[in-house]
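Model the whole thing, not chain by chain.
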Amino acid sequence: MSFFLQELVNGVTTGALYALIALGFSMVYGVLKLLNFAHGDLYMVGGYIGFFIIRWFGGAAKLFIPVPLLVTIMFVAAAVVVGGLGVAMERFAYRPLRNAPRIAPLITAIGISFFLENAALLLFGAQYRVYNTPDFISYSSGIQIGSVSIDSVQIMVLVMGLFIMIGLQQLINRTKLGKQMRAVAADREAAEMFGINVNFTIAAVFFLGSALAGVAGVMAGLLFNTVYNTIGFLAGLKAFTAAVVGGIGSIPGAMLGGLMIGIAESFITGYISSIYVDLIVFGILIVVMLVRPTGLLGRAQLQKV
Amino acid sequence: MKARVIAAAVAVGALSLAGCGSSSPSGSAAAKSCTTTIGMEGPLTGPVASLGQEQLHFAELAVANDNKANHTKISLVQGDTQLNPADATTVTKEFVSNSKMVAVVGPAGSQEVEAVGPLFARAGMAFISGSATDPSLTTSGKNPTFFRTVSNDNVQGPQDAHYIINTLKPKALMIVDDEESYSTDLVSIMIPIFKAAGIKVDHESVSQSVTDFSSLVAKITPAETVVVLPWQIAANAQQFGRDMAQEHKKAVIFGTDGLYSPGTFEIAGSYVSSFGPDIHTIPADASLVAQAQAKYGSFGTFGPPVYAATHVVDEAIAAVCKGGHAPTRANVLAAIKKTNESTSILGKPISFTAHGDPKNGQFFLFKINSKGTYNNIPY
C-alpha cells in the first residue's frame, strides 16, 4: 500500500507540472488554433531564471535572504519574464502570420523553439545547471506517513498547482478578460465586431500561458534540481500529449490530461517497467484519439458550410 | 554575352575542381610550413553538449600546444554531431569533401562511429575517437581507418561487473540504461555476468532527457543494495541519488564514464569507473591542468582522451613534415598507425593494435567520499 501511495504522490507531482505546461498549450490553441511548439522552451527559460536568482542571492548553500522570499521572487520573476517573452513571441512572430496558411505559424513555432534552445546554449553554456534545492529546503521538512515521503517542495508544487488551476478556471469563467478570451476562441471576427480588443486578448492569453510555463520551469528546477537548454523538448512533448488527451483547447482537459499522464508514467514505472513508459503513454494517446478524437473533455466543433 | 558568361562559369568551375583534386598543390612548400587542417566531431550542442564542449576545448588546447612545440600550422575545423549518427554523417561528408583536411578527431559516440566509419574508409582518412567504446567498432572490419585512445566496453563491462560482485556483494541490484547505445551496450555485457553470479537483476531504462526519477527510485527494494547507472549525464545521477535520499533508499550507486564529474555528481559512497584517468592527480600533467582550468574552467574525464587523440594526429602530421613530405590523408594515416608515444596526458604510453585499439587498455575506478572528492581506488 505504501508503495502505491508513494508512486501516486510522485505521479501527481509530475502530473501537476505537465498540467501547468499543458494549460498554456491549450489556451493558445483555444484562441489561435496554433500548436505553439516553442512552449516547452518557455518552461526551460523559467528554469534558468530560477537558477540565476538562486545564484544572485548567494547560491544554494549561502543564501542571504529568507527562503520563502527567495522562492517568491523566483516564481514572480519567472512568471513576469517568461510571460513577457510569450507576448513578444506573439507580437513579432505569430501576429504577422495570423492570416497566413496554418502551416506558416507552425513552422515558425518550431523555428522559435530551436532559436530559444540555441540562444540558451550561447548565453548560459552547455553545462547542466543545478539548483541544489536540498541545500536550502531540507528533505526532512516534508511529511512522512509510514514509509511514504512527501517533501516540502512536492507539497508546494501540489498546493500551488491546485491554486493556479482553480484560479485560472475562475479567471476564464468569471472575469471580463475570461469572457473576452472565450469570445475570441469561439469566433475572432465576431468578437472584434462586438468591440473586443482581439490583439490585447490574444496577448493576454500568451502572457498567461507563458507565465504558467515559466512557473512550471521553476517548480521543475526545485523538484528535479537540473536545468539545461534542451530540457523543454520532452516536457513540451509530454504536455502537448496531455493537452491532446484532455481535449486541446479545454482548460479542465489539460489539467486532467497532465495528471493522467503523470500518474500513468509513475505506475507503469513502478508496477511494470520504466522500459515501457513511453510506449504505453503514447499508446494511451492513440487509444484516446481513436475512441474520442476530441480528447476526454474536448468538444467537437460544428463546421459551418 | 550570355555564351561568354557560361564559358567563364565553366572555366571557373573547372579550375575549382582541378584545385579540389590536387591534394598537395605545392608539396615541398607545404612540407616546409607544415600547414594543414584537421577536423573535430563532437556533440557541441544538444543534450550532451557539456561533454562535447569539454572535448572541443581539449582538442583546441592540443592543437595550440602542438603547433607551438612542432612549429606546425594545423587548423582545427569543428563539426557538431549532437551525438546523432545522422548529424555525424552530414558533418563527415563535409569533412571528407574538404580536400585540405587530412584527419579527424572524433566522433564521440559509438553509434556515430558506426555510421561514419565507411565514409572515412572510402576517403582513406584517419579518425580517432576519445570516447567511443563499443568493442565491435574495431573488430567488425568496417572501420579500417578508425582509432581510439580509450579502452573498449569488453574491458570495462566485465571489470565493473566483477568488482560489484566481488566487492559490493549484492544479492539483487537495479541496473538502469539511458536508452543510448553506449549505455545499453554496457548493460547487455554486465547483466549476463550478474545473472551467472546468482544476482537478481531489475533492468530499467530511462531517457537521458528525463530528470524525474522519483517513481523509479520508489521501486528499489531493500534487497537491491546496488544501483548501476551506466549513464553519460552526471547531473541526472546526482538527482537520482537525491531522490534516493528523499525516499530513504540506502543502495550504493555504481556509475560509469559520464558520471565522473566532481562538483556535479557527489553522492557519498558512490563508485564511478572511467575510461579516462583524473589528470588532476597526474604530476606530469600539472601545467596542462592549470592551462585548461585557466582557459576553460573545471573539467572531467572526457576532455583528456580527446587531447591525447588530437596529439596523436598532430604528431603524425609533424612526422610527415619532418620527412620532407606534405601531409596527405594517406601519409598521415600511415604515420598514425606507427604511433608509439612513451608517455601521454593519460599518464601512460600510447600505441595502437592493428585494429586501432589502444595497447594495454585500462579503466580507472573512483570512490566518492563524504566531501564529494573522487579517490582513485584499485580495481
